[in-house]
Amino acid sequence: MDTSPRPAAPVPEPSAAPAGIFDPLGVAVFRWLWIAAIASNVGTWIQSVGEKWLMAELTTSPLLISLIETGTSLPMLLLALPAGALADIFDRRRLLIYAQTYMLLVAAALAALTYAHAVTPLVLLSMSLLIGVGAALTGPAWQARVPELLDRRLIPAGVALNSAGFNVSRAIGPALGGLVVAALGPAFAFLLNAVSFLGTVVALVKWKREVTPSDLPGERFLGAMKVGVRYARHSRELRVILLRAAGFVLFSGIIFSLTPSLAIHRLELSSSAFGLLLGCIGAGALLATAFLPMLRARLAPHTLLTLFTVVFALSLAVLAFVKSAFAVGAALFVCGSGWLSVLSTFNTAVQLSVPSWVRARAFGAYITCWGGGMAVGAALWGVVAEKAGLPATFAAAAVGMLLAHAALSRFRIEALYHDLDLAPIRDYPHPPEAIAPDAGPILVQLHYAIAEGDVPAFREAMRGIRTIRVRDGALSWSPVEEATSGASSPRTFVESYFSSSWGEHLLQHHRATLEDRVILDAAYKLTPEGKPRVKHLVTAFSDAGKEPRPRLFGGE
């Protein structure tokens, strides 16, 4: 993976008229979905307190308690990318309605099992896993909806408001959950969570989502999955964000997996005090939401990420060595500020780094890294805590976070430094063809006549073009030169790549962005006509003597 450092880019000047933090609430559909999400997230945090308190009543094992977080996060590792593909090729609104309804039913089932005293550690872990499945299906579609509802100027404020709403829930939900568990028990906490999904379902039903009509063939699920993986693999901008997010979450997620053991078994707090302690994380994140726009206007992105990472690591050291509940609450407050600031920065970077056609799949990849870091980290820190104790585990996470940041901070997140023009090129290079969308594979050949003196510049341009082709769906790519062209000028080069079908090839023409146009033109302008001569070769038949039929080439 090419994640080599790039030359420093100038830090952009703040916009003359930046969007206010509350401006997105002027968009009615965004406002109602935002309010419904807050209510639903409050219910989720109430359930989280109930799950962890119930597990602590069933066992004193730090590993089993931390595995609650693994159960919730593991589906994100396994399902977020398929969920992103579904959200890109199907109606996101319907997908969200189905996923929210599913989680309502799972939460209600857990409440019923708890009322019946039928919950064991295994049952509780299984139900947290099932809830995680719904969250994994929801995540990419929910994140990708923001650019559908808001124009580009409002996107950073919309992302910040989403984070603010989530952290209002994180501040209120655990505190309320602690009171509910203390007064009415975990079962009632699970029932409240089931009810909280109703508001989101109603808001989604009322959302009249506008879908842009297209005469292009639709993508199929497996093909969309492959294209999503290929895009994440070959988009340097996205790879850097995924790498840095995974490095941060692996260590920072310890505050969610081991704080229950710290509060219940080390500090010996009541359920209401435990809820308040978890609420400190959300309160810190909420405060950061208010100050983050100001900090972003004053500090370079690298400085901001470094500041909050270092502060987070120092707070983990406090959790390692201090036994005062007040000091632990203050440390978690600071951790919440760092969590919000770092991850909302990554979230905004994803929004600004990928075009609309693959946005949900990009968020699927992002949530996969995020969920994988949480799931693996929860299990890892649980095992370490079993062997070495809580103090040594928190201290190890603090040191690991600083080392990971030092190793990864040299990779610049480009979208935070300059605007990427991700609008599609919108050229229509093909006249109507009597070719079935499923026909293929398609061999595309672009013939370039290049003067001898322009060959070095052409070869350099081809490196960028290769990335565009394979990132946007080409199964393979290769540049060749005609054997007899070296003896004369201009020399003839042929760029060749395979598309899985004619329909997929048509879609690829609409995936290149205006940002890519600069790279493509660098090669095209070197030809006498200003563009290469293009041939499309369609697979005629699979084997001699058999009926002609389309055949898909595998691999890259």
Task: Write the SSE topology.
Layout: H1 28-58, H2 62-89, H3 92-115, H4 121-144, H5 146-149, H6 155-184, H7 186-206, H8 221-234, H9 236-252, H10 254-257, H11 259-266, H12 271-298, H13 301-321, H14 325-353, H15 359-388, H16 390-408, E1 442-450, H17 455-471, E2 476-481, E3 491-499, H18 502-509, H19 514-524, E4 533-538
Antiparallel strand pairs: 1-3, 1-4, 2-3
Short description:
The chain is mainly α and 556 residues long.
Describe the structure.
Helix 1 (28-58) runs antiparallel to helix 7 (186-206), helix 2 packs across helix 8 and helix 15 (359-388) runs antiparallel to helix 16 (390-408). The protein folds into 2 domains: 23-209 and 217-416, MFS general substrate transporter like domains (Growth Hormone, Chain: A, Up-down Bundle), CATH 1.20.1250; 442-538, Alpha-Beta Plaits (2-Layer Sandwich). The chain is 66% helix and 5% strand. A 4-stranded antiparallel β-sheet has the order 2-3-1-4. The radius of gyration is 26 Å and the shape is elongated. By secondary structure, the chain is mainly alpha-helical. The protein has helices at residues 28-58, 62-89, 92-115, 121-144, 146-149, 155-184, 186-206, 221-234, 236-252, 254-257, 259-266, 271-298, 301-321, 325-353, 359-388, 390-408, 455-471, 502-509, 514-524; strands spanning 442-450, 476-481, 491-499, 533-538. 50% of the residues are buried. The model is unreliable at 1-16 and 544-556 (pLDDT under 50).
